[in-house]
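QA checklist item 7 of 12: single-chain prediction sanity check.
[x] sequence parsed
[x] length recorded as 290
[x] structure emitted
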Amino acid sequence: MTVIFAAIVLFMLTLFFAGMLGLAKEKLKVQEDPRIAQVVDELPAANCGACGFAGCADFARAVVERRAACDACPVGGSDIAARIAEILGVEVTESFPYRPIIHCGARTHEKKGMVAYDGIQSCMEANVIGVTQACTYGCLGYGECVAACTFDAMRMDEGLPIIDYDKCTGCGACVKACPRGIIELIPFKQDRMLAIACSNKEPGRLVKQVCTVGCIGCKMCQKMLAETFEIKDNLAYLNYEQYTGQEDFDPVIAKCPAEVMLYFGKPAPEYAEMLADADGVETAPPSATV
């Protein structure tokens, strides 16, 4: 009889505590802002982390809580930013999609001091060893960036990565994968953006010893278009904040003795048909070099 009574007491206590827990759950639960789900529905679900958050759901929560900007998703672009802004009832300023460019234009035959390398075919490994080629700044050519791209937007060609900008989402995976930091995300204010296809910061005479197409820091571009170009550490840089897309770069490109200025992005119309049969879009259409 005692055992039965104890069982009944335990059963009643179980019901009591279960009821209390259920009541506490209802009273203490945090109501999630319904706009978070709405923002998630608008996002591309790439979960690439390029926005700085773990995934699209975390980014959506941050946007609703005003911890992230509406246009901070590089994959979604301006259209999705506008829809998110509409959900939140805010205005979004004009923004540009960020896409990668390659700060190296030297193909295999243009690199000097190439060394036979039988180790692991990895940029990270080759960069640590540091003896596979004379230039210690340029692309190593083993395709770490291509392997990191989950959108099939990159391929290797003659020791350089080629970007298909029709497929590229600007997630930044290739940027993180490059051990030499020669891939940069820039605001694409036009379909084709000019870039300095070199990262070598050595004096010009040393650059010539390791590469036939490296920047020699001659300052010609800076003299001709000082508001857009500058020379730092023997290397030319483009100021993309000042870059409007209205500049006349042709005279500057023509004067560059090293031919390191290349256009990245969709090919010029006159070359689009020629490249149509290629597996991807060339990062440097023929018109980009002189």
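[x] summary fact logged: The chain has a mean pLDDT of 84.
[ ] second reviewer sign-off
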